[in-house]
Amino acid sequence: MKISKFNIVLLGLALVAPFAFYPVLLMKVLCFALFACAFNLLLGFVGLLSFGHAVFLGTGGYVTGYLMMNTGLTPELGILAGTIASGLLGAVYGKLSVKREGIYFAMVTLALAQLMFFVFLQAPFTGGEDGLQGIPRGHLFGFIDLSDNLNMYYFVLAIFLFGFWLINRTVHSPFGQILKAIRDNEPRATSLGYNVNDYKWAAFVISAALAGLAGSTKTLVFQLASLTDVHWHMSGEVVLMTLLGGMGTIFGPVVGAAVVVGIQNFLSGGELGNYVHIIMGLIFIVCVLAFRSGIVGEIQKIVKRNFG
Amino acid sequence: MSADYVLETQNLIKEFKGFTAVDDVSLKIQRGNIHALIGPNGAGKTTVFNLLTKFLTPTSGTILFNGNDITSMQSAAIARKGVVRSFQISAVFPHLSVLENVRVALQRKEGNSFHFWKSDKILNRLNDRAVELLESVGLGDFADAKTVDLSYGRKRALEIATTLALEPELMLLDEPTQGMGHEDVDVVANLIKRVSKDRTILMVEHNLHVVSKLADQITVLQRGAVLTEGNYETVSADPRVQEAYLGVAAEEVQA
């Protein structure tokens, strides 16, 4: 990734942000931003609409939560374990789903995700309806106390930057080049000798693992792993974030996640709290009807038109 | 002897629910030839292509490539063996640049196509070869253009350049001049003639002018079955062919 002035300014802002905003809210935004970026890798760069991505967010969360509560694992190892668990689940689910296309792919991923939802609901170690509560954040590398919100924020920021970098690198790699070719014209990619399902599968696993990374991190932030994160509502929400921000753009999912989390946070405090879903639904409709390429996509268009 | 033949099919049959699209087709494609597959609409030409490249699975029959049975191989594997096809609609990657289109084909042999942790800058070492290929089809000046902006004729030229990048032993071209104006047709026909050196081409083509100019050998299909085979003179003199296919053209000439 190019290190431009723009990126440095953004990084600077991210570093001072916790002094202006509530750190937990910022961490929530970063976790969802990473989740949406991972999702966008599939939707925006391979053209696969997964409608069950919450399962990877949730699995990462539960595995990390369980390990943090029941073993003496340090947080970085707990997160790593959650990420790997989601990656492995993604490997299995990807094998089962990438052969299908379009709406069938969406339905298969939804069905597989619902399967895990009921596992997490019924399994003895997940706390059922209550989820896992009071998960300790622990000490990073054994000595940095993460119960301090500022420490936790910079840890989360580092994780987000790593994930964001990895997705960028994947998009702009020899592998990413083939993904774009498959998205553009799948039969042609096959006729050039590429086993397209293998490439889709690999992208699926990367996306699942990074969604797991986001979920694991989120679990530590809120010290909670719950069914909300594996519910299909969450799978829908990440679609909204990505489309609102601009699918297939690098920064789109980040902006989309910030806007969605921001609006939810703003509304939940006030009288409109009961109408959150209706308002989000309206925003979604307006987005699809009026600006299909999302916030970042529209801005890019304007910039191109006026300065390009 | 099969050694003279790059590709052979033996009793190839494809049935769709109660309808036989390809009926007992045995083709022999001689090495170094431009072999044309012609026939009226719905004769099964494109279906034969799809069977040869395994985009469809034959109901029965055998496909031999250089004497080896490739009937059970998958599409991508057949392509890696050296049988590379084009499509009826122009098969390009519209949102990649013209250069990147060719590079995608060159990249396969690099063995780094799963390397998601590396920068795509390492692909730049393929640029010289890609530009060379683009120049060979007259697209040298368009390397940086976005493919979606190219004219139809240029897209087809790009498709040929991309196919050539794989150095295929056998190129399958599905109606390479379809939907083109006169000038583009000649450009592409000349291009095919030029690239046919050192390799074998099997093409489906409607334009008889192009077929007469290019093809060494012609197979005429009708209702899924082989009607006749031979060079242009033999085939065009066959009364059955005239009735099935050229009849219309002959009447037009008389009118």
Summary?
With 308 residues, chain A is mostly helical. Chain A is built from 13 helices and four strands. By secondary structure, chain B is α/β, with parallel strands linked by helices.
Order of helices and strands of chain A: HHHHHEEEHHHHEHHHH
Largest interface: A-B, 29 and 38 residues
Low-confidence region ranges of chain B: 250-255
Mean pLDDT of chain A: 91
Termini separation of chain A (Å)?
Answer: 21 Å
CATH class of the largest domain in chain B: Alpha Beta
Radius of gyration of chain B: 19 Å
Number of domains of chain A: 1
- What is the mean predicted local confidence, pLDDT of chain B? 86
Give me the side-by-side strand order of the main sheet of chain A: 1-4
CATH superfamily of the largest domain in chain B: P-loop containing nucleotide triphosphate hydrolases
- The proportion of residues forming helix of chain A, as a percent range, comes to over 70%
Number of helices of chain A: 13
Structural class, judged by helices and strands of chain A?
mainly alpha
CATH second-level architecture of the largest domain in chain B: 3-Layer(aba) Sandwich
Order of helices and strands of chain B: EEEEHEEHEHHHEHEHEEHH
CATH class of chain A: Mainly Alpha
Number of helices of chain B: 9
Please provide a written account of the structure:
The complex is a heterodimer of chains A (308) and B (255). Chain A has 13 helices and 4 strands. Chain A is an all-alpha fold. Chain A has one domain (18-307): ABC transporter involved in vitamin B12 uptake, BtuC, CATH 1.10.3470. In chain A, the strands form 2 sheets. In chain A, strands 1-4 form a two-stranded antiparallel ribbon. In chain A, a hairpin with a 3-residue loop joins strand 2 and strand 3. In chain A, helix 10 runs parallel beside helix 13 (294-307). The longest helix of chain A has 27 residues, at 196-222. Chain A is globular. The mean pLDDT of chain A is 91. Chain B is α/β, with parallel strands linked by helices. Chain B folds into 2 domains: 5-90 and 168-254, P-loop containing nucleotide triphosphate hydrolases (Rossmann fold, 3-Layer(aba) Sandwich), CATH 3.40.50; 93-149, no CATH class. Chain B contains 9 helices and 11 strands. Chain B has helices spanning 45-52, 75-81, 98-107, 127-136, 152-165, 182-195, 208-214, 232-237, 239-254; strands spanning 5-16, 19-25, 28-30, 34-38, 60-65, 68-69, 83-85, 170-174, 200-204, 217-222, 225-230. A 6-stranded mixed β-sheet of chain B has the order 7-8-9-4-10-11, sandwiched between helices. In chain B, a hairpin with a 2-residue loop joins strand 5 and strand 6 (68-69). The A-B interface holds A 166, 169-170, 172-178, 180-181, 183-185, 187-196, 198-199, 202, 206 and B 53, 55, 74-77, 79-80, 84-87, 91-96, 100, 103-105, 107-108, 110, 112-120, 122-123, 162, 166.
